[in-house]
Amino acid sequence: MSVLADPEFWxxxxxxxxxxxxxxxxxxxxxxxxxxxxxxxxxxxxxxWGTAAAVALRLAGIALVSALLAIPLLRLxxxxxxxxxxxxxxxxxxxxxxxxxxGTSLGExxxxxxxxxxxxxxxxxxxxxxxxxxxxxxxxxxxxxxLPLVVWGxxxxxxxxxxxxxxxxxxxxxxxxxxxxxxxxxPVFRGWLGHxxxxxxxxxxxxxxxxxxxxxxxxxxxxGRGQPRQAHGx
Length: 234
Fold this sequence. Notes:
The protein is mainly α and 234 residues long. It has one domain (7-226). The chain contains 11 helices and no strands. Helix 2 (25-34) crosses helix 8, helix 3 packs parallel to helix 5 and helix 4 runs antiparallel to helix 9 (166-185).
């Protein structure tokens, strides 16, 4: 119970939920498209079973990535990759619907959901593993809180993110913060910079990257580089 009284626990939990929902735009759209040809009753079954299978595989992937992030330099590389994912999240993107077909049976729809989630969830797995700092209890809590929204609100979630772009910017900003935390927490980086100096620059770097990514999303939202902002996964 002492864990539940820890503010850091709840802060990281909130980060995981926001990250999971921000990166779930494409996944939610995939679910909606995969089940669109099924009867209404079968659609709910396909959403539940397809998402459950995908989440089980994702939890295994998060556990593996969490172990790998303990290896020197991989945490630094993961932070750089996560920063790229954050920038990609807030930039205009292609529509997932261009490459997703609807399933004609319950089994086929579940397979489409699982296969699409495996190919699209690297960013989500890396981000959640980094935000959780190896705490699988946080991972289960975070994904468990966001799962109902993805399963039952697939279409609603996509439309909500299309209408309120600040959700995407917030998710990108949190990813930027986690990326900075990963980079400055890497043993090789801390040894190169010095542990005392690394402690000093830790928060400024993380906060700076969070603000930079959020500002970049806002800029794209205003039509930066002449590109109108499309919602992630819309």
